[in-house]
Amino acid sequence: MNAAEQAIGVTVATKIAAVVNLFKSHFPDAKADLRPWANDPDTRQLIDPDSIDIGFHLPGWSRSAQSRSILVQIRFYQDPLLGSRRAIGIEAAGFTHLGEQWRLSTVEDWQFIGKTEPSSEVKEKLKQFCRQVFELFNTTEAA
Asked: Which domain of life does this protein belong to (predicted)?
């Protein structure tokens, strides 16, 4: 779900801002898009209500990132026993005008798959960003 729609309280809004700042600490030229999904009925059917989705647009096509934009989706699980919400996975995908070029999922083995892959340096930055996001949402009071 668009990050802008998930920012319904101070705690969540603060954490979304922290995610943007974490990404920009690795990719300073990126511009955050808190509404990466279109607001039409077809798109709304595909949106995961248990996620925070943020788009990051690079200033042109990046050879090292093999993309123009990177969509980050942080997925959550609401623990009914603890009453807390925990980040359980992060999906990141790089896009150009030709569509999706690569994807990283933290759900299994943190491997990049796709038509092209980012440079080793960008891969490590993205993995570090994901580790920091998990720390942000799971070591303090969950969102």
From this structure: Bacteria
> How deeply is 15 buried, as exposed, middle or buried, from its count of CB atoms within 10 A (0-12, 13-18, 19+)?
buried
Report the C-alpha gap between 92 and 22 in whole angstroms.
Answer: 14
Helices assigned H by DSSP within 27-140? 41-46, 120-138
Q: Where are the domains of the chain?
A: 3-138
Exposed, middle or buried by CB within 10 Å (0-12, 13-18, 19+), for 43? exposed
Residue 74's Cβ-side half-sphere holds a number of Cα atoms within 13 Å equal to 28
- Tell me how long the chain is: 143
Neighbouring C-beta atoms of residue 90, cutoff 10 Å: 25
- Give pTM, 2 decimals: 0.87
Give tens-digit pLDDT for 81-103: 777 788 999 999 999 999 999 99
Task: Say if strands 67-79 and 112-114 run parallel, antiparallel, or are unpaired.
Answer: unpaired
